[in-house]
Each structure stands twice: as C-alpha cells, then as structure tokens.
Amino acid sequence: MSVSTTHASTAALDEIVASPLDRFLAIGGAPASGKTSALLARAARAALDGTVLLASSSRHAHERLSERFQDAFGANEAVRPVSPSALAFEVLAAVHPGVRYERISDVRAAQVFEDVGARLFSLEWTEFVSAEIDPEISGLRTPYRFASAAFRLIRKLRGAHTSPEEFRANCLVAATRFYAKPPNFSDAALLVETKPKYRDSLHVSKADLDAQYAREIDLAKILALLYEAYVDSLVAAGCLTDADAVYEATNALRGGGRFERYRFAAIDDAQDLDPGEIALLEALFGNELAGVTVAGDPSQRTCGFAGARGDKLFEREPRITLPASGALPSGIAAIAARALQPDRTASRPDDVEFYRGNNPADEARFVAATAARLVKDGTPPQAIAVVTRHLDCVRAYADALLARGLDVRMTGNVNPFDYPAIADALAALWAVADPFRHDWLLRNLEAPWMALSDAAIGALCAEPAVEELQPALLPEADMGGDAGERPRGGWDGARRVRLASNVLRGDVDGDLDDDTRERLGAFRIAVQRWTSYERDINLAQAVKAILDESVLATLDEGARGRFDAALVAEIVDAAVRFGERSRAASLGDFLTYLERVADADADLVSLNVASAPSAVVVADVEAVKGAAFEHVFITDVRAGAFPRYYTPDAFVYSPSFGIVPKENLGDDAHSARTAKFTYALYRMKATQRYHEEERRAFAVAATRARTRLYVSAWGKATKGIGAPELFEELHPART
Fold first, then answer.
1. pLDDT by residue (tens digit) across 665-702?
2. Which domains, and CATH codes, for the chain?
3. By the 8 A CB rule, do 646 and 723 touch?
4. Which helix (DSSP H) or strand (DSSP E) does residue 465 occupy?
5. What angle (nearest 5°) sits at the alpha carbon of residue 702, between those of residues 696 and 707?
6. Burial class (CB in 10 A: 0-12, 13-18, 19+), 722
7. What is the per-residue pLDDT across 51-69, written as a single tens digit (0 to 9) for each?
8. Can you tell me whether residue 270 is helix, strand or coil?
9. pTM: predicted TM-score of the whole model, two decimal places
C-alpha cells in the first residue's frame, strides 16, 4: 500500500494509517500537505475489515475523490463513494422500505415554497384576516424577495437540523430576553463600529422597542408558519431535497431505525459539513464518531454563512496535522497566507503574476491570450483553470477562451439562461408551445437558422395592407374602449397577435423579398413538423428532435459550437428528468418550468458542461475544491466581486438573537433599520466574518495552482471600505 507523498510527511502518514480504525480521527494540514492521500490510504486499510463510506462535503469534489481512490488502490467493492445526501436516502429506504421518496432539486423546492407562500402574499391567511398578525412586516413590501430570503432561511434551518417548533420557540425566547433587558445602545464601541447613516437606529425609546418587539414576534410567527407549510407540502409527501433527506434520515435513526451498512467512514473537506450532516454521522456511528476519519483544513472553510460548522470536528481528539509537503510553490503559498492574514509580511512572489485591465473585456483578453500561449507551449488545457468567486460574471472569460479556439468546461453554480445558445433553444421550443409569445418569436427570427434582416423583421411587425385579414383576438368590449372606437394611441387587440399571424399565416408576404419568404416558408413547415413531434412522441424525444433541426443544425464545428452543443444538451437532459417526473406534461408545462428556473437564485442552479474531454476549466471556488491545476487564473478580484459585498437579507437569524428584522417599519419609524439589527450585526461581527470567509475562498482558489498563479482584476480600485481590495493588498508593489 503506497501513497504519493513527500518524505517529510512519511512519519505522520504512517501514524495515520496505523491509527486504530474503531475510533474517530481528524487529519489536518495545509493545502497540498497530503491530507486526502492519507485519508484514502486509511480508507483502503479499513476496507480490509468492513465496508467504508467514502464522501466529500463538496458535491463537486465527490466524484474526484472516488477517482483518486481508484487510481491509487484500484476498484474495491468495500469502499463505497456515497455523498451525505445519497447516504440519507439510503437510510430512509432501509428504515422505511414501504415509503417512496422522491429526490428533488432546491430549485423545484423553491418553486413549491413560492406557491405555498402565495396565500401569505395575497394576505389570505386567517391570521391576517383576524388581525392577529400585523401585515407591516420587514421584507413584505417586496414579496418575492421575502420569499427568497425565507427559503434561504429554511434551507439553513434544515441544514442545522432545527425543526419549525424549535425555530419558533427559540425566536420567542430570544426576543423576550433581548427586549426585556435591552443592551446599552449608547455604548461607544457600538457607535464607532456603526456606519453614521445607521446610528439613528440606536436612538430608540421604550415605545420604539415595544413596536419593534411586536413586529419581530409577528415575523417569527410568519416564518414558522411558512416553515411548517413547506414541510407539510413537500416533506410529508415524500419529496425531499438533499438537506431534507439528511434531516429526515437523522430523525429516523434517532427514532430507533437501524442501518448498519457501513462500518467505517472517510470524509474529505470535512470543514464544510453542516450540523445536519454531522448529526447524521453521529446517528450512524455514535456521538463519538467511532470509525469515522475526517480530513480537511479549517482555514479553508468557505461555507460558514451557508451553515457549515465542520471546523468544530478538528477540535476533537485525536487529530494529526500533516506538515507542509513542499508541493505548493513558495510564492503561491505566501500569497494565500497573506490573503488570510493581511498584516503578514511577504516577499515578492516569483510564481504569481498580477494584471489589472481597463475593463472586463481587457481582463478577459489577458486571461484568454495567456491560456492560449500556455496551451501552445505544451500545457494540457485541462491543467488550466479560470476561477471566480461566482459564475455569474464568468461569461466574458468563457467567450474569450472560445474565441481563441480553446474548449471550455464550466462547473459551478450559475444560471445558464443568460447564454445565447440556451435562449435560441428555448425560442425554437416556444414556437411550438405558444407561437404568440412574441418575445421568443422575435428570437427565432434573429436566430442563426432564420437570420432575417432588420428590415424583414420590421415588415413582419407592421400592419398588413388589408387590416380585415387580421381580426382582433378579443372583442371590442374587452379592449378598453367603446364598440367601434379605437383607444387613444391607435392600439387594438390585433396587435397582440399580429407578429405571429404575419409569420405563420403570411399576411405580409407580399411586402417581403423572395429570400425572406423562402425562409419563412421553411420555418412554417418546420413548426408544423415540430408540432407533430409533440403529439406523436414523448416530451424528451420531441425536445431533442426540435433542437436537432434548429439550433444544433447551425452550430459550427469549433470550440464555440462544441460548447453551445453542451449547453443545449442540458435542456434535453432537463426534459428527460421533467418527463420522468410528470409523464402527462406538455411542452408548454416544461417551458413554464424552465422560466421559473431561470428566475431562481443562481446559487440554486448548478451547471457542469464540458465541450470536450480536454478543456480549460472555468469554475467557481466551491467547484475546484479537491482539484489541482498547473496554472490557475483568479479573475475579477475587485471589491464587490471577489470579495463580495456583505448584503444581509431582510432578516437574519442566530440561535442567540433569534430572528432579527432589518427594516424598521410603521408610520412612527424614525430610522430605516431596527435597533436590534444594528446591534446584532455589531455583536456577531457579521461583515468582518463574511470577508474573512471571502479571504479563505481566495486562499482555496490560489492553492489549487501547482506551477503558476495569475491574479487579475479590472477598473480602478476602491478605497476598500465596503469590501477589501485583495488585488491591491497582494500586488507586489504593496508587498
């Protein structure tokens, strides 16, 4: 049994492998110190005595962990790669064999939650009708933002293994404790730490606090009711997200359920485990976690604001810390260390390059040109990674790489509906589901398979020469005017259907040139054929056939074409999953679902598309955990992007403070924020902790590089007040 490691860590490695298997063990160490290799070696030894659960807290790193084990030790049936959520579903299937559980995405759960909250937003709940709850509640002025914030809170509560009853009770107790004996809002340290524009929130009277207390209690009741409704609507019906499955599996085991499939567990990146996942491990292996080995680095915990508390595992004994191996270049290690400790001195790094562009396009050109040069000099594309804090700003870099002929693999949380290939695909499908959706019909006219001129599109949007050929869709009485009278501005109901009628029926064909008429004729025939697909074959097959004949038929054979084809394949895969879940669903149902997905929070939508086996990796920080590359570009390193600004929701929650509303409402409110919100942020050091986590994320990205690191940004630096300017802090001119 051998593991690739350096001589310096051999003694520690031997101690890890030889340590008794029937007890807990924590393996710590700096990046590239060999933690994962040691964990896998211990798992291989444990496999000689029983079945081993092999997992990573990061869903992106889970597959890589399994591949690394097989590369090092070969296939072993006793070592089973199972993510914490998959483990939870295994437990539920074993404990409740007669119950059918359906695994659903967070996006779908958010949509169901939105429907559940619809009654609240229309003020139809009994509590509002009977005036038991004041509708003037923090966040309810913007209902959809309130729903998103409430769903994020519920996800955290599920991850923390907190029930609706526990949440409600904790909120009521914390509120009573706080307002019964308010803190000193005139404390000098509090005033200094509070921005001047929010200091007025601390000038409160007893009447102000009484009003804020009453509204806080009402908010807690609303959120508890929403939480209960979420559980009743989804969980009770057997529809579980990953966090729900972990919660329910833990309760099943604590209630006496038996599950003895695994004797040991080996968990990588354990610093990012949430309390619910830790509780599930304790329910399986006991509170002492006997037989569990965890590996990780608390200094690389990047999910704390999402609820991760796995760093506490590394405070347990026994633990072994591996020394630095030397695999990480000294300059890169120094930059990562300085990102974590801004006051740390550092020498000029030889293996780190900095670049600040004038604008986003300039920075993207630098990244693409440098990557292309590296590939030309012999670096495999898959050994290059472009890493951002979040993929919502990554399109410019992907486009620049594709323009250079480099294939791209995109991994992480991003909303893919911003990409042209996805929009073109949806337009083709909407032509069948509802040709009178003119926003999508216009997209078809501009798409590569039609590519009509602006003049032709203008003619199609115009009125036909004989207006009677196109009667109004609605009677005159429904069009906002008296019978026979056209409303001011020349509007009439026919405009609602004019474009589709002109395109599909040909009312203005006489005003078009021959080439445009030919293209429109081909499109009309295609729409008729596509409509027959929807009628004659299943949803997924129809979607694939339509896209094969439209957007996919016009893609080129280069890197851009391969990337767009991979994106479009995501739509087909989504149709397969949607059709399996609802076999009677129509194409319109599927597209309506996708519209709701497009409106979902980007952190709920995960994308993993590869245009070719050998491709440059474009990913967010969470997606590169557990991976290593020769060259890493950390892009958009500017205040507000990396690190991001801390923007709290309409309410925050902590076990010590309970629910804390942000907005101070009511006719007599003299400040925008509540006093408790200002005080809680000060005591929790929320902004400071958030930016510390952003610094850890930068260190994670930097330590993925094994040869050279590139740090880039664009535009002028800020003063670093709202968020640190990491680029300026780390630039050699500053060090």
1. 766 677 889 999 999 999 999 999 999 999 999 999 99
2. 7-100+241-322 (3.40.50.300), 103-240 (no CATH), 331-416+613-647+688-730 (3.40.50.300), 418-599 (1.10.486.10)
3. yes
4. none
5. 160
6. middle
7. 999 999 887 888 889 999 9
8. helix
9. 0.89
